[in-house]
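Predict the holo structure. Ligand: 6-O-phosphono-beta-D-fructofuranose.
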Amino acid sequence: MKHKTNIRRIGVLTSGGDAPGMNAAIRAVVRTAIYEGVEVVGVMRGFSGLLNRQFISMQSHSVSKIISQGGTMLKSSRCPEFREREIRERAVESLREACIDGLVVIGGDGSFRAANLLCNEFGLPVVGIPGTIDNDICGTDTTIGFDTAINTAVSAVDKIRDTADSHNIIFFVEVMGRDSGFIALNTAIATGAEAALIPEVHTDIEKLCSYMERDRRKNKTSGIIIVAEGEDGGGAISVASKVKEILPDYEIRVTTLGHIQRGGSPSCNDRVLASLLGYEAVNALLKGLSGIMVGQVKNEIRFTPFEEACANHNLINKKWHEISRILSL
Ligand code: F6P
């Protein structure tokens, strides 16, 4: 959708689960806008900040030295109230009162659904930047934060492997990914895990036990099973206890990596991706584009309508699941 561009001042916010690289994206948005002679206002705490008018003026120095920092300097929140139209109307009124002509939303699919409603219902120009560790958004090869999160998970699993080997233990390591197995699958391949349980593939406990028994017959004394939080066996604790019932003599432990996957200094890849997408998002707004997410596909910038980015999840390559198992034999 194209608008006439008369944009003098833009807002930027981060919404949903934080992701490493969000700060780098904010920095790129602020610096690009200033370069183009446009004012920037930071909206604190995601869409909630629109309702409470939590606006801060952003200068070039406001984003100094944040490129290497995890989290988000603008803070983030999930804002279920936004499902109500009158709440969204209030948000748009706040923006108009603050003379904010367009918005850059950095977040995941939930944030883009809210952003899309602001465009469609009130004609507000909005451009999105995919920021989530889950990598589950269509229209970009990777989302900001994914690369850092998998590196964090890999280094944690490498450490757990030392203990697994030393004590002959099978570890069930739960990683994030409510609806998608990207973090689990990449971590499993990179750590040589014995199995990966992911939301996209039904968890078959009997089959998992048969793998574990086969591994033992081949004199493997320890193992790592990576479990995505959203797989259909109920998560690592539940899967481990079902396995223990079938294989009572196995020494089993569960580790949940949890929110360490969302924090930390962003990787080089995430910083570069965030910087490029931040730059492109501002330029897209200034060219009159709206209702779209800016992504990167095969090293090219791609604009994807919010509806499309949210409707389809980025799909894992199921062959990787098979390869992961083959390589751990
Ligand atoms: O969307 C990112 C994510 O980290 C998911 O992987 C996870 O399921 C969810 O957020 C956890 O959210 P919260 O921190 O709000 O419990």
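The chain has two domains: 9-145+266-311, 147-262. The pocket of 6-O-phosphono-beta-D-fructofuranose is lined by residues 17, 108, 132-134, 176-178, 229, 262 (CB under 6 Å).
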